[in-house]
Amino acid sequence: MIIALAGGVGGARLAHGLARVLPPGELTVIVNTGDDFEHLGLHISPDPDTVLYTLAELADAERGWGLRGETFHAMEALGRLGGENWFALGDRDLATHIERTRRLAAGDTLSAITADFAARLGISQAILPMSDDAVRTIVHTDAGALPFQDYFVRRHCAPRLISLEFAGAETATPSPALRAAMARADLRGIIICPSNPFLSIGPILAIPGIRSWLAGRRVPCIAVSPLIGGKAVKGPAAKILAELQIETTPRAIALHYQGLIDGLMIDEADAADRFGECAVTATLMRDIADRERLAREALAYIERLRPAA
Amino acid sequence: MIIALAGGVGGARLAHGLARVLPPGELTVIVNTGDDFEHLGLHISPDPDTVLYTLAELADAERGWGLRGETFHAMEALGRLGGENWFALGDRDLATHIERTRRLAAGDTLSAITADFAARLGISQAILPMSDDAVRTIVHTDAGALPFQDYFVRRHCAPRLISLEFAGAETATPSPALRAAMARADLRGIIICPSNPFLSIGPILAIPGIRSWLAGRRVPCIAVSPLIGGKAVKGPAAKILAELQIETTPRAIALHYQGLIDGLMIDEADAADRFGECAVTATLMRDIADRERLAREALAYIERLRPAA
Question: Which of A227, B10, B248, B303 has a C-alpha 20 to 30 A away from that of A34?
Answer without folding.
Answer: A227
